[in-house]
Amino acid sequence: MKKPKLSFWQIWNMSFGFLGIQMGFALQNANVSRIFQTLGAEIDDIPILWVAAPLTGLIVQPIIGYFSDRTWHSKLGRRRPYFLAGAILASLALFVMPNSPYLWFAAGMLWIMDASINVSMEPFRAFVGDNLPDSQRTMGFAMQSFFIGIGAYVASKLPLILTQLGVANTAAEGVIPDSVKYSFYIGGAVFFVAVLWTVLRSKEYSPEEMKQFDDAKQDEFEMEQRPQEWFSSNGQTQLRTGVLLLLLSLVLTYIIYHFGLKKDLYVLTLGLIGLGSVALIISGFFQKGGKTDNGFVTIMNDFQSMPKVMKQLAWVQFFSWFALFSMWIYMTPAVTEHIYNATDPTSEAYNNGANQVGEMFANYNIIAALVAFLLPVLAKKTSRRFTHFLALLVGGLGLIYIYFIQNPTTFNLEWLPMIGVGIAWASILSIPYAMLSGSLPADKMGYFMGVFNFFIVIPQLVAASILGFMVSRFFGNEPVYALIVGGASMILAGVLSLRVDD
What we know:
The chain has helices spanning 8-15, 17-38, 46-49, 52-69, 80-96, 103-131, 134-164, 178-201, 207-213, 215-222, 228-258, 266-288, 295-304, 308-339, 348-371, 375-381, 384-401, 410-428, 431-437, 445-452, 454-473, 480-497. It is an all-alpha fold. It folds into two domains: 8-217 and 304-497, MFS general substrate transporter like domains (Growth Hormone, Chain: A), CATH 1.20.1250; 225-303.
């Protein structure tokens, strides 16, 4: 059986929750560096403070995907229980974050907030794959891009709007301005209401219906039963690989310690390589010992046997999100220092520049919302991979252009570079998922969408660990050069998208 097509408004309702989710993410992306600097963080320490966000996604998303694939509630369905739980927690975190009294408290709240947002966000990707036939999935992800753009546009402008309404945009040293605080309060309320709308106005197919819709793929993956000899051999391979990676992690960690390199690099050696090696070693021991019927081994082995398209898209995602993370971390200090010549978070020039960054982020998101439904049209006339290439090319050029801005007029700074970034953002949020979803089995849709998030999170961890080192060691603590590195990374991602076997 083929899944029935849904109406425009049904797709609208099932995507509406992303309006609130992206408001939460946009407030985080546009204001957390500002909060950290206000609480006393130095420029080259900001990336390491951000590391909680991607590390949380790396852990949370595949776990939530794995369990949501195996969940069925008679009233809330498969994915909606996770939407709702995440929305409640994220809304509370958004109320607490701008009231952080200390830098360490703000870093901890970022971890809690990001974990909660990830709990809500991950099932939304699988929701499209669950409910829509292949012919409507590009439209479904484009609708999500539309709401992401609108939500982020409104959230990014909130501090400026509130400032214009008379809310204080400056505060005493170490105190978050009221314009930022009230923006987070509004975002928390909208987050909960928007997700609740999707929970109440959408339906899901039961496990029995899903088997009827995807019986061919279901049979293919049901035939994956493997003998213990396969698990023993695979466990030995994972064990050997894990030990080698652990040794590499320890050697690199010693080099960082011995030469007194920047501590951010420990995120890469101990956090990324170290934790990955430990996971492989544990999975290897389980399989060699015959303990194969557990979620951890299933997650590790499914990661190992990703579809070909997913492996090709992994490289595209890596360099795309490395670029985005460099922008989110360094746009505020780059604009305030390189263009406004201001480094004091209490000064009027700094806060005017920070508000202009909010305008820039708002603009690229509204551009993304406007072009979201044009990308599927262009993809039909050319191809999805060529469309993605063009979008990433103009996005990378937009980031690099910021270095050359001397006169920060509304058009020159707030719009011209952000048009390219907005086009790239719309494509990043839709085209890769449309290419991926058709290659995934229904009974593992949530898990593989969660694993796909690895290739969003890993580049963010790499960025958090090496960007601070690069800026301090090679670029004289001038953050604008991080944007140039990000622009080059986005262009490379566009080139790699041309080799995806879509």
